[in-house]
Design goal:
Distance between the termini: 22 Å
Order of helices and strands: EEEHEH
Number of helices: 2
Radius of gyration: 13 Å
Number of strands: 4
Shape: globular
Oligomer: single chain
Strand order of the largest sheet: 3-1-2-4
Structural class: alpha+beta
């Protein structure tokens, strides 16, 4: 899977219950939508970012020690099968 970046920031992208909370973001690289309102054009090309295994993504994510994780893009659903595996791995980890 190609990951553009993994970082921590203030969440403003989910429900109002999570807005304003500290969150770890996993930003995928690659997008086939080309939305005119895209706020992350640097993550649109599938060749952007770094190829990472599921374990590498999980290891990097848990370093932030935050169970509040937002998966964003690019377009994460390009990697639908792998994305399901990533969600399972993250759910089972002890942060």
């Amino acid at each position: 899977m190609r990951i553009n970046e993994i970082f921590q920031s203030i969440n403003g992208e989910i429900t109002r219950n999570h807005q304003g909370s500290l969150c770890t973001f996993i930003r995928f690289a690659g997008c086939n939508c080309r939305c005119s309102y895209c706020d992350t054009p640097r993550a649109q090309k599938i060749t952007d970012g770094t190829v990472m295994t599921l374990d590498e993504i999980v290891d990097e994510t848990i370093k932030w020690r935050n169970r509040n994780v937002t998966i964003t893009g690019g377009e994460p659903l390009i990697f639908e099968e792998e994305l399901q595996g990533l969600c399972r791995l993250l759910r089972d980890k002890d942060f």
